[in-house]
Design a protein that fits this description.
- The complex is a heterodimer of chains A (about 200) and B (about 650).
- By secondary structure, chain A is mainly alpha-helical.
- Chain A has one domain (about 25-195): Four Helix Bundle (Hemerythrin (Met), subunit A), CATH 1.20.120.80.
- Chain A is about 70% helix and about 0% strand.
- Chain A is elongated.
- The N and C termini of chain A lie far apart (about 75 Å).
- By secondary structure, chain B is mostly helical.
- Chain B folds into three domains: about 5-35 and about 525-590, no CATH class; about 45-510, Cytochrome c oxidase-like, subunit I domain (Cytochrome C Oxidase, Chain A); about 600-640.
- A three-stranded antiparallel β-sheet of chain B has the order 2-4-3, with no helix packed on it.
- In chain B, α19 (about 600-615) packs antiparallel against α20 (about 620-635).
- Classes of the chains: A mainly alpha (about 200), B mainly alpha (about 650).
- Chains A and B meet through α1, β1, α2 and α5 of A and β1, α6, α7, α8 and β4 of B.
- β1 of chain A pairs antiparallel with β1 (about 5-10) of chain B, so a sheet runs across the interface.
Chain lengths: ~200, ~650
Amino acid sequence: MSERIRLRGKLPVGAMDTRASGWWAMIFTVFTEASLFSYLLFSYYYLAVQPHLPGTFPEGGQPDLTLAVPNTLILLASSVAVGWAQLGIEHNNKWRLMLGLGVGAVLGIIFLGVQWVEWADKPFGLSSTPYSSLYYVITGFHMAHVIVGVLILLALTWWSAEGYFNARRFAHIHIGALYWHFVDAVWLAVFFTFYITPLLGLRA
Amino acid sequence: MAASHYERHPSVATQDASGLEGRLHLMWKTEPGLLGWLSSVDHKEIGLRYIITAFAFLIAGGIEALVFRLQLSWANLKLLNPEQYDQLFTMHGMTMIFLYAGPILSGFSNYLWPLLLGARDMALPRLNAASYWIYLCAGIFLYAAFAIGFGPNAGWFNYVPLAARAYNNGPNIDMYALGMILLGISTTVGSINFIVTFLRLRCPGMSINRVPILIWGTLTASAANIFAIPAVSLAFFLLWMDRNLGTHFFDVTAGGSALLWQHLFWMFGHPWVYAIVLPAMGMVSDGLPVFCRRPLVGYTVVGLATIATMVLGFGVWVHHMFATGLPGISLSFFSAASIIIALPSAVGVFAWLATIWTGRPVFTTPFLFFASFIILFTIGGVSGYMTGSVPVDWQLTDTYFVVAHLHYVLIGINVFPVVGATYFWFPKFTGRMMDERLGRWNFWTMFIGFNLGFFPMHISGLLGMPRRIYTYSEGMGWDWLNLITTLGSLLFGIGVLIFVWNVMRSLKLGPPAGDNPWDASTLEWATSSPPPPYNFAVIPTVASRHPLWEDRLETGDPQQRSYTSAGLVLDHGREVLGTTPLDAEPNVILKMPADTLVPLYLALSLTLLTLGLALVNWWVVTVGAACTAASILAWLWPEAALGETAELRHE
């Protein structure tokens, strides 16, 4: 009887790598967040194909790429930094972990600053037209996610400095990093929608 | 930190091993007193709270309905004025669909899932507690608005422009919008918890083809929720922005689109309809066969049909919008999809009928509720199939025919199975049986009252009576039908009262149930009634779909039997066994959190944040957001006792 029940080997104990329940929870959190952005972008495209007065979709014509392209690269670089930190802790390198997470957070903050400049430079306000509402709400939703992501990276940096993680215990790092990579990836969809589709002819 | 902190070889014992149950009880029990009650993360506690709260909302929504049924019982009555009527029918719809129908199933699943799966709790117990508290706060938030006279008044699907600031100037719609966003958070985190529990906490041997159908129903609904709920939360948020911050998403005069609201609402709304029936169908699929003394006919096709229904359910939302002037090609596509969805839906009906036909039915109260559900589902399914056809829909949309259809579907597929499931699992919840004689009275008053109340609505709809009118003129030919409907609804209400009476009475006077009073086949019946805080003293090992019927079914290899009285011992603190997602092979020992108040803090913080948005007061919003962030930070702080840090200090 007990032969069938008894385990052959030992089992790991606690929140280990991708066996942690939190890691699975974060995957499905990312799914639901991705759905949220899908519905936001659906709203953009749905309103984009309605009739508009010329020059109001996008409001003020093609959005300027001067800041948006470098800012996109900054956000992508932050993902690279965080990925580098993740590999670091798997090799038990605490300093590389802290440095990668910290650089990721700083790049995220720079991204937010540049976005703020973009907002301030726009000739329209939240309630000018449907386009302006879409622009501020969708980029605003993304910025809110970046803020949450930066807070997560800062907490992880702090906990890393406390010595909470090593090459066996780093579930928190992978879970937080998963969220950050999502926040970066979803920006590409937002960027494509606002900055590229008008160039492809989706405008009034 | 020695390697032994990272790894262990759990021993094997029988459940009556000396001192084991006492040790586990100390580790898993909820402390007595108010503080213990507020901080419990036990899935059984949370499940029962969900069930009781949802039933309270069912009663509230029922009273609202009875009040406006009196108003409608004859032409030209003036019991309610139009504004009161609008708030009542909107509150009724909102309450039943959002505060009752979804949460009641979350309650049953919360209580039953770990027991059905051979686990000791849900995968994320604190998230489970947070899910309940946020639900309770959202319900109170929505009802507080109603209590001070600002209940939602534009129908539960809240179409713009009626719900826009220009036509609805009070705080009614803002409160509804924000309360729904709060409720959406609860449903989302609850759904994530079900999915992770399914993937990680099934006991050894419970591969995905061995889980009960209720698991498939709730899993499918949960997966749908995480994709669908963002649509409605976003729609309500954009509406709040339109109403308070001057955006133009739904404002047609400024280039927005009123139909965008309908799309976002029904992209959520239709999947939600399936989310609030599939788990209930699952309860029937598991409960009905027990009273037919045989396994369910067609387990595999019923499981697959559940998933197929849900997948198709994402592609039918436009059938709520057939009369809005959309292009013909769109109507054709969504009409076809709506009609095709009858196929997977019918699979269940034939499976249940075949189970009864080939079984030896025992006519208990749960059987009556489960079997009558098949009839009501079929009637509701046929009227839905009819309105899936565009020309028929153009005749019937916004008439009482649709009201009849949706009540046959929602009461037939949700309330009847839920009452049956209460009779079925009440012995497990409480250790006592419910009264069978009262049960018969309960069933027949509800069944006759329901059909008397709702069947005539088909006819008043065909006679052209529109829904949502607060009264009507004499001579339309609707008077007698409406009087019958009102009388039927009163009889149905009496049936619900008999049910409540039976529950109250049986709590005190019901005969003791024992572990397995119905001689059922699944794991929840292998433990005591009510189950101990740790559910199972040793982790069960399963070798078939019916671990408790293996002797008589004689299926499979006689060497391969399920074990419930002997198994792995996990007694180094609160621990559960993590298994692989498909085959349920053990691959980790998971540390489970202690009872904590943090989920309650999180719920209160989010409610404060929501209140700040309702008042458009950015100070309150900031404080609410800061409290939310602080709660989450405290929650996620790496803990040695949970095996989250480099040192596992507790051993």
